[in-house]
Design a protein that fits this description.
The protein has six helices and twelve strands. With 355 residues, it is α+β, with helices and mostly antiparallel strands. The chain has one domain (13-344).
């Protein structure tokens, strides 16, 4: 699948100021969300991913705790972002992380505009379709670099406070089939990183994305079918589908026509809104496409450059108070900013250097 050419094709390596393909991560993803249970993360960790024994044990990154985490063998459409299932799912008893410096990240909750969402998504889809990116060759790797931070409750003794990690870099390499890769992220891996390995095709891998239907209706049916099969049923069906699409647009590298179809599919999900102003992890202001999880009180926001409609990052904002939740309205439970995407020739190769 080749992207539609533009007047100024982008090279295989670019920085965030050079026109990224509106896409991961993913959270992976993130992700990244408060939606999913620790038990499910542990189960999927055992099923799909292996890590080095020395990988540090810590609380899972909320970026990776997606609404739906589906088996890659079933062409899962969410949650299995690069590195997500490679991380140890056990949490220290006191919930500490070396990066938690507090206080909690907060923001002003932007006004949701349901009427403006279809038009904005149509514009974003057109911009994505007109993005020219090189198709990776067999044996190459997708490199995604981002800045991320999470917020969560921290309990010491009888006292629980809400703390945020300091903003930190995350670097992921993934083979085209998602069976091999590498992750480096302070607080979750050592300085050298950890192996990402799987015997099955990773959901969100380039080869899987390239095989997805580009008809928005067919694509949305596929997303609902897969998310219905394995989602946490505490999460509303439409929210699970929205988060699934977001996972494929963040820490990943879908072909341009697939990205365009994903945005058109998102426009068909009930409850999707536009937000006039949202800020990514790097402080860049943009417009957002968002949807609220009415049961969890959080709103997932995909942030785009206001002029170019290039994907900037994602954040999750508490927009409604929920009983027994430690999070106040305006708390940012996760924030990310994609700073670089590249196709490289080898695992762990730094873009711009020889393999």
């Amino acid at each position: 699948m080749n992207a539609s050419p533009s007047h100024q094709p982008h090279p295989a390596e670019w920085t965030e100021t050079q026109g990224l393909l509106p896409c991961v991560e993913r959270d992976l993803p993130a992700g990244r969300h408060q939606f999913h249970k620790e038990q499910l993360m542990a189960q999927i960790h055992e099923d799909l991913r292996t890590t080095r024994p020395e990988a540090p044990k810590r609380r899972p990154n909320p970026f990776l705790r997606r609404t739906v985490l589906l088996p890659a063998a079933a062409l899962a459409l969410a949650g299995a972002v690069a590195g997500g299932l490679a991380l140890t799912s056990g949490a220290p008893d006191d919930g500490r992380t070396a990066l938690a410096t507090g206080p909690a990240l907060t923001t002003t909750v932007g006004v949701a505009d349901a009427k403006g969402a279809p038009r904005l998504l149509d514009q974003i889809s057109l911009a994505a379709a007109d993005t020219s990116t090189p198709a990776p060759r067999k044996g190459q790797y997708i490199y995604i670099e981002s800045q991320v931070a999470s917020t969560y409750p921290k309990t010491v003794g009888d006292t629980t406070t809400v703390v945020s990690e300091e903003l930190h870099p995350r670097r992921v390499w993934n083979s085209l089939d998602g069976k091999d890769g590498w992750l480096i992220e302070p607080g979750q891996t050592g300085d050298e990183g950890i192996t990402l390995a799987s015997k099955v095709r990773l959901a969100g891998a380039y080869d899987v994305l390239a095989a997805l239907p580009t008809d928005p209706d067919a694509l949305l049916r596929h997303i609902y079918r897969e998310s219905d099969a394995a989602r946490d049923h505490e999460v509303p069906r439409d929210q699970a589908a929205f988060v699934a699409i977001g996972d494929l647009l963040t820490e990943s590298y879908p072909p341009a026509e697939v990205s365009a179809a994903l945005y058109k599919a998102a426009a068909k999900i009930p409850g999707v809104v536009a937000v006039k102003d949202a800020v990514d992890a790097m402080g860049r202001h943009g417009v957002a496409i968002a949807r609220e999880d009415t049961t969890g009180g959080e709103r997932v926001e995909w942030i785009f450059d206001k002029k170019t409609l290039r994907f900037l990052g994602e954040r999750i904002v508490v927009v409604k108070s929920v009983a027994d939740s430690p999070f106040k309205v305006g708390t940012v439970t996760f924030t990310s900013a994609i700073t670089r995407r590249a196709v490289v020739d080898a695992n762990q190769q730094i873009p711009g250097t020889a393999g």
